[in-house]
Structures are given as C-alpha cells and as structure tokens.
Sequence to fold (457 residues):
Amino acid sequence: MANKDSTDPVRMEKIVSLCKRRGLIFQAGELYGGLNGCWDYGPLGAELKRNLKDYWWRKTVQERDDVLGMDGAILTMEQVLVASGHVGGFSDPMVDCKTCKGRFRADTLEASQCKEKPSVCPGQSPKCELTEPRAFNLMLQTNFGATGDQIAYLRPETAQSIFCQYKNVLDSNRVKLPFGIAQCGKSFRNEINPRNFTFRSREFEQMEIEYFCHPDDGMRLTDEWLEERLKFYGEIGIPREKLHILDVPDGERAFYSKKTYDIEYEFPFGIQELEGVAYRTDYDLGVHEKGSGKSLVYFDEDTKERFLPHVVEPSAGCDRTVLALICEAFDEETLTDEKGKEDVRTVLRFVPRMAPVKVGIFPLLKKNEAQVGIARDIQKQLQPWMNVFYDDGGAVGRRYRRQDEIGTPFCITVDFDTLGENGDALKGTVTVRHRDSMEQERLPVDALLPWLLERVR
Ligand code: ATP
Fold:
C-alpha cells in the first residue's frame, strides 16, 4: 500500500501530456495564456465525464426509490450563504512567501512547497519568509440585477440549493423519510493554490446527495452510504485497494458533523480526497429555518412525531473522479515482436462503461467499397446506442494502437472474410479485437449490438 508521501511525477506528466495530445483535457483560455484553475474538457474528456455523471445518476437516482434528483441554480442569493455560514466562514488560512512571492494554504504548507517557484525561491527555511496566516474567503462573488447593485455568489457547493428546496421537494413528491435529493453540477471556489492538474480547480463539478433521515438513523446511514459509495467506485473501475478511508477524528471534522469519512485515492501526486461522506446532523436545515424564519420541521404521520430531519451527505468531486479514472487506467505495456524488438504500447484501461469510445469500426482496406459499406452500416446500427469511432486511415495495427491510447475496449474490423471471399464459413462475420488482451474473435454482424450492450453498460 502506498504511503501518503509516495508520488510519481513522471507518470503524472505522461498523463497530463496524453490528456492534451488526445483531446481529453485542455487548459481553459490556453490560447491567451491560460486561466489558472480552470479546465476545458475536449471531445473525449467530455464523453468520459458524461459517462461518469450518467452512471452516478443511474445508480443514485434512477435505480433507487428513495432518492430524487434536482438541478439548482448556480447563482446563489447572499442570504442563503449568510445563513449557511459560507459568507462568514468559508475560508482557508493563507500565507504569502516574501521570497518567491508564492501564495499557499497555511494548513497544507510545508517548506518544500516553495519549490513551486524554484527559479526565484530556494524553497527552504530560513530563506522562505512566510507571512502570518490570514483568512481568505473562497467564494466568487458577482454583481446582479439591472443596476448591478445586488450581490450574488457562484455557489461553492451544490448542497445549499438542496437544503433550501428540501420542503418543496418533500411537499411536491409525497415522499417520506428517509429520502435523499441528489444533484450534479458546477461549483466554484477561489482556491488559493489550484494544482495537481484538475484535482484542485476553481471551477469544478460535484455529485452530491443530501440524505434526510430521522436523528436515530444518522450514524447507521453514514456507514451504509460509505459502503454504497465504495461499491460505486469498484463499478467504475477504481479498485478497493487503491482507496483509503479516513475516519476523520474529533477536532478535525466540521463542528456540526458527528462523523465524517473521507474516501481517498492513490493519485500519482499522493493519496488525496475523492469524496466526503459526512453526517451533518440537523445543522443545515436548522440554519435555514433560522435564516428564513420558515419551519422546516417534518411531521411523521405514523409516529405523530415532529422533528428537524438530520442529513447524511455523500459529496463526490466529478472532476477528481474523472482524474482518478484516467490515472487508474493509464498503462504502458512493453511488447516484444517476433524479431525480439521492443515497443511500448500506451493504453487507457477504462472499464467499458466509462470508456469515451466504446468501439472502433474499421474496414481493413479503405479502397474496398464493399468493406467500407459494411463498416458504415455497422457504425449506423451502433450509433444510437453508444459512442463509436469510424477509422479507415493507415495500417490496421496503427488504428488499434490509436484506440488503445484513448481506452476503446473493442475494435471491429470488416475484412475479406466478412465479404465471403475466403469461403462461406466466415461470411457475414467481423473481427472483434479486445483492447486489454489484444485477442481477436469473430462475431456475426447481427450479434454485435447485443454483444456490445451486455459489455458497455
Ligand atoms: P479539500 O479538502 O480537498 O479542499 P473539501 O473537503 O473542502 O476538499 P468538500 O467541501 O467536502 O471538499 O467538497 C466535496 C467534494 O468536492 C470533494 O471531496 C472533492 O471531490 C470536490 N472538490 C472540492 N473542492 C474542489 C476543488 N477545488 N476542485 C475539484 N474538486 C473539488
């Protein structure tokens, strides 16, 4: 098991470079020098992220009777964030280094962090001259309304709109406790020191569930949600042995939380948080009841009890999970050909349900019209169901490698056998090549859709 300090910067560099080369992730505003802490997902990155969000939604909302979805506004009223405590207290302690002019979070600072600017700062005390920590509010504020004199904030988490709409959802959907409201969407934090690629960004997406329950059930449900979330990570291809559960000790949890687990992953830059599962008690509904002056009390018709529901919150970072998927999938495999020549194959070993492209479709020969016709027909047949990629450029071996590099789990090749040119036995069949084993098998064209659907969903 890796320890907290074990890192692999060379691997991370290769991953960042692959992401740019193959169109997964680009620096936002790169053309103009880049906007620090913001990222654009290219064609393949957008597919990967969508697959993750869709699967999260399917598992969290669609396949559960007790969780409803919502999609709240990003612009948030000042009163909401005053009541929640964000306006007054959503800050990180910040220090400046007078030597390298760097700016750091005091709680995560180590002297060596000044190495971020090695050309100006030697990076070690006593030359690093740090100022006293001061609170730096992480929220991004904007002006609102025709005269621009109203303040609104870009939400720092998706959770607050869920708490504020809890009563509306309850009243309009005839649900009973326990039940959850799930939301996936953008959040914004003016992070002091965005770093580690997309890991710490200023604009990012969260996948949050607020699960409302009776006070007696909070602790048990926190443990149950932890298990549920670990299962989810397994299903998207992040193995259990790469995840670490931090049972956040007393004194390090938010003051209102009775229990918090951090689910951490072994990134190449260290073991870092992917998701927090927190038992938040009745803090959130309590502050909004007070802030709004409106009752958020729940009436249990069976027991005739009235109480403020407690909340268990599994809160995951979408971008961080995408990054974990890429880091986990990245592999370089050394292959040796018949002549003993070595070659390195770069492959993203995504589980098929996460892969941006599910299947590559190739005619063996670009100039063979019959092969092209069948390959195009297969493309049309599969496209309504999954993202496919048609490629007829270059040797078929190179086409396989291009798909390996972006994690496509299967490639289909239409060849002379498909056309029946070597006898009837293989007529109407295609080669299906598997990314991980590189093994090939033949399948009838008619069987492709059900065969693939069984494997990519
Ligand atoms: P950290 O300690 O890393 O700053 P946090 O504990 O403040 O994270 P939460 O407020 O619990 O994070 O947010 C829930 C999830 O949202 C985190 O587990 C993470 O996956 C994601 N998240 C939070 N901040 C960022 C960020 N700046 N960039 C990307 N994802 C983030």
In short: The longest strand covers residues 270-281. Residues 157, 189, 191, 200-201, 204, 206, 273-276, 315-317, 319-320 surround adenosine-5'-triphosphate (CB under 6 Å). The chain has a mean pLDDT of 93.
